[in-house]
Amino acid sequence: MKFMLIRRADANTENGAMPSQEMFAAMAAYNQRMTEAGVFLSGDGLHPTSDGCLIRFKNGEPTIIPGPLSPASERIAGYSVLEAPSLQAAIEWAQQWPTQDADGNVTLELRRYFSLEDFEPGAGIEQHRNLARVPDAMNVHVAFPGTCREAMQFYADVTGGHLECLLTYADTPAAEHTPPALHDRIIHASLNLRGRRLMGADMAADCYTPPQGIEVQLEYQDIEQAARTFAQLAEGGKMIMPFEATFWSPGFGMTVDRFGVGWMVNVPSDNCPLATEGDSP
Q: Cβ-count burial of 223 within 10 angstroms (0-12 exposed, 13-18 middle, 19+ buried)?
């Protein structure tokens, strides 16, 4: 079951008072305990209502009511999303809320999320089920013949992305089932690019197949940055299409880098309209 644990606002939060470092540390420790228990899904604090507004509809017409909003005790200062097997289990976690918050004088509200199973079947529910089919993220995974570490560090340098993981076979239970020669190779690498990830792993020689028929696409608004990135990726690789203006883009190029990975670098434009069914050729 999914629950929202709501931290009600008070005079301090509505006045924009920031938590102390002690409170930050206590909250981080609390969230860490819940994360390790598989309970914590997400959580955020909110700016005071003076930075927001109410949007109230009457007969379908919206009226904007700017903040601050009162009374403070009916407002939300933050929330955590929890996954727990029962209401009682969620309550037990809520009771462990850090006492450093407002010297232990806070009001929490615990509410269970609806799930689709709570509603009668119907067309509207099926629309929501279709939305649920959309993945939370789409990432790219590339195989390497032993060059994963070098390649991912190169991609991090080129793109400025955050190389958040380089895990070797030796660091996992897989070490028991792989030859010693593979132990220093990478079993999982992850490069974070604005929340999207380029992932990779080294494969044994008899399992590795060079990528075919697929490219990693990078998009830039800045044509000069796009050109620099393309030049770095193309160096030592195989040029497929030089970076230049096309009928659909002011800058586009294709290359296979020196690690055997294909890339497209593109600058978007408005010159690529969607085709409409029934349009004449």
A: middle
154-172 in b/e burial notation, b at 16+ Cβ within 10 A?
Answer: bbbebbebebeebebbeee
Q: How far is CA 258 from CA 147, 158, 168, 251, in A?
A: 10, 13, 22, 22
Beta-sheet strands, E only, within 114-261: 140-144, 162-168, 186-193, 196-202, 216-219, 238-244, 251-256
| Element housing 205 (H / E) | none
**256 and 214 Cβ atoms separated by less than 8 Å:** no
Q: What is the pLDDT of residues 173-229, one digit of tens each?
A: 988 888 898 899 999 999 999 889 999 999 988 889 888 899 999 999 999 999 999
Residue 193: C-alpha distances to residues 163, 179, 190, 206, 235 (Å): 9, 33, 10, 31, 21
- Length of the chain measured in residues: 281
Distance between CA atoms of 64 and 77, rounded to whole angstroms?
20
Residue 131: pLDDT band (50, 70, 90) is confident
CA distance 14 to 68: 8
Which residue type occupies 75? R
DSSP string, 75-120: SEEEEEEEE-SSHHHHHHHHTT--TTGGGG---EEEEEPP-GGGS-
Q: Identify whether the C-beta of residue 113 lies closer than 8 Å to the C-beta of residue 4.
A: yes
User: At 184, is the secondary structure helix, strand, or coil?
Assistant: coil
Distances (CA, A) of 245 to 218, 234, 279: 16, 17, 27
Which pTM value belongs to this model? Answer: 0.62
At 41, the amino acid letter reads L
Q: Give me the DSSP letters along 46-64.
A: ---GGG-EEEEEETTEEEE
Distances 114 to 1, 3, 111, 133 between C-alpha atoms, Å: 9, 9, 9, 17
Tokens 């509200």, located at residue: 109
